[in-house]
Amino acid sequence: MWAGWLVLLGALATALGLWWRFESRREHQFDPIILDAARRAGLDPALVKAVVWKESHFNERARGQAGELGLMQLMDAAAQEWAASAGVYPLPLDHLLDPRTNTLAGAWYLARLARRYQQTDNPLPYALADYNAGRGNVLKWLRGPAATNSAAFIEAIGFPATQQYVREVLARRERFARDFPPQN
Is the pTM of this model over 0.90? Predict the structure, then answer.
């Protein structure tokens, strides 16, 4: 009886080890692309990686129900804004499934959103909420202290899923910071 349990535990340990290696490889396969896109956009690469993790879990072929595509789950309108700024307009929609193109466009767009909220103590929660729920919703949540205080803003977010999105991306950013040591 114990021998059967030991065999089962051994098989389980082997399966968990294989899963962990697969997840680790998948989690790091786009690091060079993320680093390049983040540097070009002037963003923290750990933030871009956290958005990729939350949006697509590193699946470059991901497709959302509302038409979002790729690693950063970009909508066509956001991608075309990037394409116009990069001089590659119009961008064929299928190009958003290319990890490099998608991450360049997504990081550019996220940086653009962050610049909208420079008057706040921390523009990232505002930019992430905008990325997830849209500017119209963010404008509804910018009342009282939430207009400039990011902690108050997170509490004021009216969609529980968006509030969770912001919190999870910011927490995951801290975890991914070790993947991108500061450059001297």
Answer: no
